[in-house]
Design goal:
The protein is about 15% helix and about 40% strand. It is built from two helices and eight strands; from the N terminus they run H-E-E-E-E-H-E-E-E-E. The N and C termini lie far apart (about 50 Å).
Length: about 130
């Protein structure tokens, strides 16, 4: 009987832990961000940067070949006006295609795709 009781208590504790809040205590919520769903269709690793108008480039992530990654652009990386350029640096080919100037605000979602030849970036609004 005692082992059944221990099993029941252990099971109840596991269920309670799984249903608890997902944030760790003391975790600071992220400032509102824009989301870039970046798809790398090339055979090469791409380092992704954001360059706000009149600002310095900020690395926001690395996307492996054939992968799609969710990249967060925090408001401080987007600059004051929200106009920025997204750059994919493909070091293996010494290429750095860009999206051109786009206007992104916190809360926006876009999908960016690096072409299979690693020479073109396309940007479209991303579905929710």
């Amino acid at each position: 009987m005692p082992s059944r009781f221990r099993s029941a208590v252990l099971t109840l504790a596991c269920v309670a832990a799984a249903c608890g809040p997902s944030k760790k205590q003391g975790e600071v919520p992220e400032p509102e961000s824009a989301v870039v769903m970046f798809t790398n269709q090339s055979q090469y690793e791409a380092a992704v940067f954001v360059v706000p108008r009149g600002g310095l480039q900020v690395r926001v992530g690395t996307v492996q070949p054939g992968r799609t990654e969710r990249l967060l652009l925090r408001s401080n990386a987007m600059g004051a006006g929200g106009t920025l350029t997204i750059v994919a640096r493909v070091t293996a080919l010494q290429r750095a295609p860009t999206t051109g100037a786009v206007n992104l605000q916190p809360g926006d979602r876009v999908a960016v795709t690096l072409s299979s030849q690693a020479d073109l970036l396309s940007l479209v609004p991303a579905p929710e």
